Amino acid sequence: MKQLFIEIFQISIGILLASIGLKAFLLPNGFLDGGVTGIAILLSELFDLNISMLLLIANIPFLILGWFTLAKRTIIKSVLSIIGLIIFVQYENFSLITDDKLLIAVFGGLFLGAGIGLTIKNGAVLDGSEILGIFINSSLGISIGKVVLLFNIVLFGITALLLSVEIAMYSILTFLVTAKVIDLMIEGFEDYVGLMIVSDKNTQIQEQLIEVVGAGLTLYKGSKGYGKRGAVKEESEIIHTVINRIDIRRTYKLIDQIDSNAFIVEFDVNNIKGGVLRKYFTGESVKALSPNWTKKKEAST
Fold first, then answer.
1. Number of C-beta neighbours around residue 23 at 10 A
2. In degrees to the nearest 10, what's the CA dihedral of 21, 22, 27, 31?
3. Cα distance between residue 131 and residue 146, in whole Å
4. What is the CATH topology of the domain spanning 192-300?
5. Which residues contact 243 (CB under 8 A, 6 or more apart)?
6. Residue 220: HSE in the Cβ half-sphere, 13 Å Cα cutoff
7. pTM (2 d.p.)
8. Residue 78 in contact with residue 66, Cβ under 8 Å?
9. Across the strands, what pairs with 238?
10. 131: which residues sit within 8 A by CB, 6+ positions away?
11. What is the pLDDT along the chain (301 residues), one digit of tens a residue?
12. Which of 153, 143, 7 has the alpha carbon at shortest distance from 80?
């Protein structure tokens, strides 16, 4: 129950932020966002209709689709979230903050992205296009990102034809800012990458990764491999680690100093939980690993 109240509170904050982005920046200046919200804004501009009613009507088909696609808990929270956004948009009144089009696009996208991202993080959606993406992904295997991108390409193309190319271009900028902020809200500001390292000097590399970079490690046993000259490489240890992207250049330099011929595979890490990680934005440090490594090393000698 406590978790549910936390989710409701954070979704409420998300709705407030999204409505500020719409009412204080985008709507007074005729700018669009992507997705179903963009469709509602476009129809409002073309036919001078109430944006709140359009938001409701435009989302209904996608919510019906979501009833058969998403978990019932998620779709119920999404329905309540969209209704909450409609109420905020209908009754909120903000004075015009700026008439600078670049600032409108950037800050409108920032507030909207923060609101949508916070809502998604707590298990609801504020835009039906995301539900469409989930449905097509489960049916055809096309990624959600590609579905939403194609949806918005069509939307902004229609905007360029019916309104103006300039509005379409600023709306694309708003969408890009919104999408990036959503990613930051969902994934956090800490960005990590994974490294797989194969080296003849893996013991020295392990030591430096722990003591200098402060990274945790997992070691795999490689039974056999083939080098760049075709030679067979017998058993070796493979280092698997996840580091903060801030440390990536320092880590490569450190490995290169130990073994310039080390084989390194870098890959993106979409989500991570637990383990030993250096976190810069939360102030957490893992330097406490160093004494443990030293004791382990002394015990083995």
1. 20
2. 70
3. 13
4. Alpha-Beta Plaits (3.30.70)
5. 192, 193, 195, 213, 215, 251, 277, 278
6. 12
7. 0.70
8. yes
9. 198, 220
10. 62, 63, 65, 66, 69, 70, 78, 125
11. 788 888 899 999 999 999 999 989 998 888 888 888 889 989 988 898 898 999 999 999 999 988 887 788 888 999 999 999 999 988 878 777 888 999 999 999 999 989 988 888 888 888 888 788 778 877 787 766 677 778 888 999 999 999 889 989 998 999 889 888 887 787 665 678 899 998 888 889 988 888 888 888 888 887 766 666 555 666 778 899 988 777 888 899 999 999 998 989 998 886 667 666 666 444 454 444 444 544 555 555 4
12. 7
CA nearest 171: which of 62, 57, 37? 37
Considering just the CA atoms, what is the radius of gyration of the chain in Å? 25
> Do residues 130 and 35 make contact, with C-beta atoms less than 8 angstroms apart?
yes
Q: Does residue 36 contact residue 151 with C-beta atoms inside 8 Å?
A: no
CA distance 178 to 152: 13
34: three-class secondary structure by DSSP: coil
Q: Could you tell me the residue ranges of all domains in the chain? A: 2-187, 192-300
Distances in Å between the Cα of 300 and the Cα atoms of 141, 170, 207 are 50, 62, 14
Which of 253, 248, 223, 226 lies closest to 238, judged by CA? 223
CA distance linking residue 248 with residue 254, whole number of Å: 10
Two tokens, residue 10: 């954070």
